[in-house]
Amino acid sequence: MNNSKKRIWNGTAELISCTHTAAKSIFLKIKADIIAKSVTAGQFVYIKTSGASEPLLRRAFSVMDADPAKGVIELYIDVKGPGTESLAALTKGDHIDLMGPLGRGFQKNTFTENNILVGGGCGVAPLIMLAKEIKRSGKKVTFCYGGRTKAQLVFIPILKKLADNLIITTDDGTAGHKGVITKFIDTKHTYSVYSCGPKPMLKALSAIFPNAYVALETEMACGIGVCMGCTVPMASGGYKRCCTEGPVFSASEVLWN
Ligand SMILES: Cc1cc2nc3c(=O)[nH]c(=O)nc-3n(C[C@H](O)[C@H](O)[C@H](O)COP(=O)(O)OP(=O)(O)OC[C@H]3O[C@@H](n4cnc5c(N)ncnc54)[C@H](O)[C@@H]3O)c2cc1C
Ligand code: FES
C-alpha cells in the first residue's frame, strides 16, 4: 500500500507542549486529531510557526508518536537554523501551520519475528513510532542507538522501556560501546532492518544490509511532489521524490555516492 495516497490535512494546530532538552533539541506535542488517527511510522508533517514570515518555507519532521484517542502527535526536533529556532520559541497554546501526514512510511507487511532498528541523532524519532507498531504486532525489537557522545543520547529512557534489546554506542566511548553503531549489529541472523539517521550511517548500513529500509531526510520545498526539490538519485538510474515516493526507500534502491 502506498500511504502517500491517504488524505492530507492542512490547517492551523494548537501546541500542547514544547519540552527543551539539554542537547539543543525539543519535543513538541501538537493537537492534530486527523493526523493522529491516520499517520503511520516513517511519515512526516510539514510545519512552521503560524504567522511567521521567516522562514518562508515549512520544515519537515517525522512523527515520533501519535495518540489517536487524544488526537495528539509528538515530534522530536534538533534546533539548527531559523525554522527550528522559531519552533523552539513556542509555548503551550501557540499555533503552528501544519500539513500531513505526508510521504510513504515503513510498511507493516515487512515486519519479521525479530526486527533491528538502527538510529542516530534525530533519525531515532520515526523509529520510536515504528518500534511501537512492531511491538503492537507481537514481534520483537532490537534497537541499535548511536551518537557522538553520551549527552546527545536523549532517547535512552524511552528506548529502555520500548526495546527488547538495546545496543548503545558512542564515538567517544562515554556511553555504551565505543565506535560506530554499524560495527555492533548482528549480521549472523536474518532480520528485517530499518534505519534513519545521518547519511554516512545509512550508507554504511546499506553496504551491510542492502535489503534494509531507510528513511531519508533531504531538503524540501513543496513537500507534496510538485517542485522536484527533494529528488534522490536511484541505483537503477533516474530520481525519486523523497516527499512522495519516500522518505522510506529500500537501501538497495538508492545511489549512495
Ligand atoms: C522527511 C524528513 C523528516 C525529518 N524529520 C526530522 C525530525 O524528526 N527531527 C529533526 O530534527 N529533523 C528532521 N528533519 C530535518 C529537518 O527538516 C531540518 O533539520 C530542518 O528543516 C532545518 O530547518 P532550519 O530552518 O532550522 O535550518 P536550516 O537553516 O534550513 O538548516 C540548518 C542546517 O541543517 C541542514 N538541513 C536542512 N534541512 C535538512 C534536512 N532535511 N536534512 C538534513 N539536514 C538538513 C542545512 O543544510 C543546514 O546545515 C527531517 C527532514 C525530512 C525531509
Ligand atoms: S519537496 Fe517538492 S517535490 Fe518533494
Q: Can I get a quick summary?
A:
The protein contains five helices and 16 strands. The protein has 257 residues and is α/β, with parallel strands linked by helices. Residues 220-223, 225-230, 241, 243 line the site of FE2/S2 (inorganic) cluster.
Q: What's the CATH topology name of the largest domain?
A: Rossmann fold
CATH homologous superfamily (4th level) name of the largest domain: Nucleotide-binding domain of ferredoxin-NADP reductase (FNR) module
Tally of contiguous helical segments: 5
Order of helices and strands: EEHEEEEHEEHEHEEEHEEEE
CA gyration radius, whole angstroms = 17 Å
Low-confidence stretches: none
Bound molecules: flavin-adenine dinucleotide, FE2/S2 (inorganic) cluster
Tell me what the structure shows.
The relative contact order is 0.15. Helix 4 links the parallel strand 9 and strand 10. This protein has a seven-stranded antiparallel β-sheet. Strands 11-10-9-8-12-13-16 form a seven-stranded mixed β-sheet, with helices on both faces. It has a two-stranded antiparallel ribbon with strand order 14-15. The radius of gyration is 17 Å and the shape is globular. The chain has two domains: 100 residues, Elongation Factor Tu (Ef-tu), domain 3; 108 residues, Nucleotide-binding domain of ferredoxin-NADP reductase (FNR) module (Rossmann fold), CATH 3.40.50.80. The chain has 257 residues and is of the alpha/beta class. The longest helix is centred in the middle third of the chain and has 13 residues. It is built from five helices and 16 strands. Bound molecules: flavin-adenine dinucleotide (FAD) and FE2/S2 (inorganic) cluster (FES). FE2/S2 (inorganic) cluster binds next to loops.
